[in-house]
Write a structure and sequence with these properties.
heterodimer, A: mainly alpha, 4 domains, two-stranded antiparallel ribbon, 15 helices, 2 strands, B: mainly alpha
């Protein structure tokens, strides 16, 4: 990351924190203005809606221009398209560099669009040349090269331009490359375990700009998710990691009893370990990862054991979830100053409006009943749609 | 942890920019010595409601014959009544203004009560058919009930649910992000979507103008605009696409212009995307061979235009 971009990123983090303080009423408007004057922002930024619009139209323009150029130069042969994609990718890297450098763009949508398209064109062009024109089969060596190239490209893009999403993608590509190795599943466990302390420390390091810290956190979460997948009972049973690495013959070999036992233990213990780490380090991302992994483990257990009808399982899980959330809130609220062990249920500096908007959108998407048929041939007794405002199964 | 903020706070206090009495709390939050888990608790409560309602749905489906209709209907009714009674007892007095929620669980217990009552009503209707051939009207009843609960207890989540259920009554599904709407080839569904959309937009504007639950306006207007644009866009693949494309172009442009004037950024985005889609449909029909050139050229124009508009609208960046 350029020094000026890193400095601007640090200033943006302070300005962002100040805006959240203002939203929560911790400071007044004059104080916010004074802070913003103290840490000036020399980048060209746009708001979230325009950012999305500019990103979308940049991607459309780049793709359409590629198609137009390919037609214009008659690059309709497979090799021509592959090389043109690589050239296009390099040109987009230069375009991103110009935008983040001399043009001082950050959070502007267009530089995200060009960098994202760059990754797609370089990776796509390479795949085209390797597998289509080069007639190489997607076996161990070529797959490892292809996945490794993705990891390197995404890591370089995250390091140079500071997009955390690319760091997450780099970790995902790395895991895919490791899956090709003979001991792929063990590497899925060992590598995230080895990287986790480093990434955890780097994600808090004052020496890194905020974008790089966030990149380390994103890579950490993907790595830990990979670790969970590697030990997960369902993934062991279905040889999911081996299939990802293209090691098809292994899929036929039955899973050993020890491996099966260890995977059951791992499925049960990894989610609480994530939760414990999240509580110990007070990391919300790890808490959320622990909750998601816990839900997945619980669902796996039910699918394997089926100890009760599904409605009982769902109802009990729902009631336990509600009770747990209320108990935690009560526990925190009952403590002096409404905080215990460094946690509080008070909103602090979060944006409550954003959460409520998300919930309203989610309720429309998930809880809305199925629509009735617009044109009905006539009443059919006993039929209909069960649900109303919520459940929507036909029966 | 945010090392930049940790480093900045003492400096801001020293320069007299930040009040010293505020610094300790801000520093604790920046050092991650104090972390709010409110968002996570809300997520858990929402998941809990989803799981319970899902379980109730399955309970009815799988035990219909074994338990008996009266028991199921009574149990559902009792559970809904218990939840709503708790809400009634806990709720602050009614106001047309925004009312702060009395607790973290309040909105979710209300949502659970409304969903259970809706399920009970649907079950009674399907089992005993009191509405006869007009059975879909139970969706309207659920919608009106949810709207009443939303207004009384000031819940935007339940209000959104009421609007979506009303659309379902008219045969328009907004579940799964309304994906089904775009695939529809049914003129009646399309017109119903447009009609619902217009109704929701008008409802939102009336609420805002009257100053009665004005904070419900965004939910109504956003859903309304999406339904109108989605309904119009669903006609682009039809034989008589030209009329739908023209309408989409006009509606999108009109929405973008209105949103520009009122600084409504998401609505501006809907309008721009809708208008662009309508215009592009015309071009693809006329000179399909130049499609790539047209899209590349107009996308660049759009980018330049958006950059210029953004400078005027000045959307705050986060």
């Amino acid at each position: 990351m350029r020094a000026d971009a890193a400095r601007a990123d640090r200033n943006a983090a302070i300005r962002g924190a100040a805006r959240s303080w203002r939203r929560a009423g911790a400071i007044d408007g004059a104080t916010l203005a004074a802070i913003e004057a103290e840490v000036p922002d020399d980048r060209v930024r746009v708001g979230p809606v325009f950012r999305v619009l500019l990103f979308v139209f940049t991607l459309i323009a780049i793709t359409a221009a590629f198609g137009f150029v390919a037609m214009f130069f008659g690059a309709d042969e497979e090799q021509g398209v592959g090389w043109l994609a690589l050239f296009w990718g390099i040109a987009l890297a230069v375009a991103t560099e110009v935008q983040t450098g001399p043009l001082r763009r950050a959070q502007g949508g267009t530089e995200a669009g060009t960098s994202f398209a760059m990754l797609c064109f370089l990776q796509g062009g390479t795949a085209w040349l390797l597998f289509d024109f080069g007639n190489l089969t997607p076996d161990g060596g070529t797959l490892a090269f292809f996945f490794g190239l993705g990891a390197v490209l995404c890591a370089a893009a995250a390091w140079r331009w500071g997009f955390p999403l690319y760091a997450a993608a780099a970790m995902a590509w790395l895991l895919l490359a490791l899956a090709v190795a003979p001991q792929g599943r063990l590497l899925w466990i060992a590598v995230p375990l080895a990287l986790a302390p480093v990434l955890l420390r780097l994600s808090d390091s004052p020496r890194l700009p905020p974008a790089h810290r966030a990149s380390c956190a994103a890579a950490l979460v993907v790595g830990l998710a990979g670790l969970y997948l590697a030990v997960h009972y369902g993934s062991v049973e279905s040889r999911w990691v081996e299939a990802m690495g293209g090691r098809v013959p292994l899929l036929e070999i039955p899973v050993g009893a020890v491996t099966e036992f260890l995977s059951r233990v791992g499925t049960a213990l990894v989610p609480p370990a994530f939760l414990a780490l999240g509580l110990w380090r007070r990391r919300r991302l790890l808490l959320l990862l622990g909750l998601a992994a816990g839900a997945a483990s619980l669902a796996t257990w039910y699918l394997q054991a089926a100890p009760a009808p599904l409605w009982v399982f769902l109802g009990v899980c729902g009631l336990v979830t509600l009770a747990a959330a209320l108990a935690v809130r009560r526990l925190l609220d009952a403590a002096p100053d409404k905080e215990r062990w460094g946690f509080t249920a008070e909103p602090l500096f979060d944006d409550p409006e954003a959460g409520e908007r998300l919930e309203a959108a989610a309720s429309v998407v998930t809880l809305t009943p199925e629509a009735r048929a617009a044109q009905e041939p006539g009443f059919k007794g006993g039929g209909g749609e069960f649900g109303g405002g919520g459940a929507s199964g036909s029966w | 942890m945010n090392p930049d903020v940790i480093e900045a706070i003492p400096r801001l206090v020293e320069r007299g920019i930040l009040p010293a009495e505020r610094a300790p709390l801000l520093l604790r939050a920046a050092r991650r010595e104090l972390v709010s888990v409110r968002l996570e608790l809300r997520l858990l409560l929402y998941l809990g409601v989803l799981l319970v309602t899902g379980g109730v749905g399955l309970l009815i489906k799988e035990n219909l014959d074994r338990i008996g209709p009266v028991v199921i209907a009574s149990a559902l009714g009792l559970a809904a009544a218990a939840a709503l009674a708790w809400v009634w007892r806990t709720a602050p007095p009614f106001s047309w203004e925004r009312v702060p929620s009395p607790g973290l669980a309040f909105d979710y217990v209300l949502l659970l009560g409304v969903l259970l009552a809706a399920a009970d009503l649907a079950y009674v209707e399907a089992r005993f058919t009191p509405l006869g051939p007009n059975w879909p009207w139970h969706l309207l009843l659920v919608s009106l009930f949810a709207a009443a609960m939303a207004v009384r207890f000031d819940s935007r989540i339940v209000f959104s649910l009421a609007l979506a259920t009303f659309a379902a009554w008219r045969g328009v599904s907004v579940a799964h992000f309304g994906a089904g709407l775009l695939d529809t080839r049914d003129d009646l569904v399309r017109w119903n979507a447009i009609g619902c959309g217009v109704l929701f937009v008008v409802l939102g504007l009336v609420l805002a103008r009257a100053g009665r639950k004005a904070h419900f306006e965004p939910a109504a207007v956003h859903l309304g605009c999406l339904l109108v644009l989605g309904g119009l866009a669903s006609g682009l693949g039809d034989r008589g696409w030209a009329g739908w494309a023209a309408a989409l172009l006009l509606a999108g442009a009109g929405l973008a212009a209105w949103a520009y004037g009122t600084r409504r950024f998401p609505l501006f985005a809907y309008g721009v995307l809708g208008g662009y889609l309508g215009l592009t449909r015309f071009v693809f029909e006329g000179v399909e061979a130049l499609g790539c050139f047209w899209i590349a050229f107009t996308s660049i124009l759009m980018i330049l235009g958006l950059v210029a508009v953004q400078r005027r609208m000045r959307e705050p960046h986060r």
